[in-house]
Design brief:
Order of helices and strands: HEEEEHEEHH
CATH topology of the largest domain: Mago nashi protein
Number of strands: 6
Distance between the termini: 73 Å
Largest sheet: 6 strands, antiparallel
Radius of gyration: 22 Å
Shape: elongated
Number of domains: 2
Strand content: 25-35%
């Protein structure tokens, strides 16, 4: 009995250690990010057509949010948790399945873009920030959620965002 007690205690300690470290890895592992979609980018921002300018942000699948100028990511601004990324990812996917085309001919437009380079997929929805049309309602809500991933002090789009 005395020889078995240290073995049992050792096994219990090992089991506790593995369960503690294993739970952390499972909790941080996002269910929506797999090999086939880890290169997905969610982009949002403004386009001024007359000047051919884009001002926006890119959220990549690891949860990092970057400032975007034209089509290049530059400065990392923030990071979100995988579960929040998955929520945004699922909302964007669902809305693009429901509203496959949204393009408003205006000089200044707001956009959300889904980019999946390895699959050759690029979906973009544009709408006029001056109007609250029914067709852009869910995209506007998602845009606001995406914009909440930004720290306020880094958002040069704050004034335009307030027009919603």
């Amino acid at each position: 009995m005395i020889k078995i007690l240290p073995v049992i205690l050792f096994l219990i300690i090992i089991l506790l250690l593995f369960s503690c470290f294993g739970v952390d890895k499972v909790a941080n592992k996002s269910q929506c990010i797999g090999k086939e979609n880890k290169d997905v980018e969610l982009r949002w921002g403004y386009r001024i057509k007359s000047k051919n300018e884009y001002f926006g942000y890119t959220l990549i699948s690891n949860g990092d949010v970057y400032k975007q100028n034209k089509f290049r990511m530059s400065k990392k601004l923030s990071h979100i948790k995988p579960i929040y990324y998955c929520s945004l990812y699922k909302k964007v996917m669902a809305e693009f399945l429901l509203t496959q085309t949204l393009n408003v001919p205006a000089d200044t437009t707001v956009y959300i873009e889904y980019v999946h380079p390895s699959k050759g997929v690029r979906l973009k929805a544009y709408w006029n920030p001056k109007f609250k049309a029914v067709g852009s309602k869910v995209f506007r809500e998602i845009w606001n959620e995406l914009d909440e991933t930004l720290p306020d002090e880094n958002s040069e789009l704050y004034e335009m965002r307030m027009t919603f």
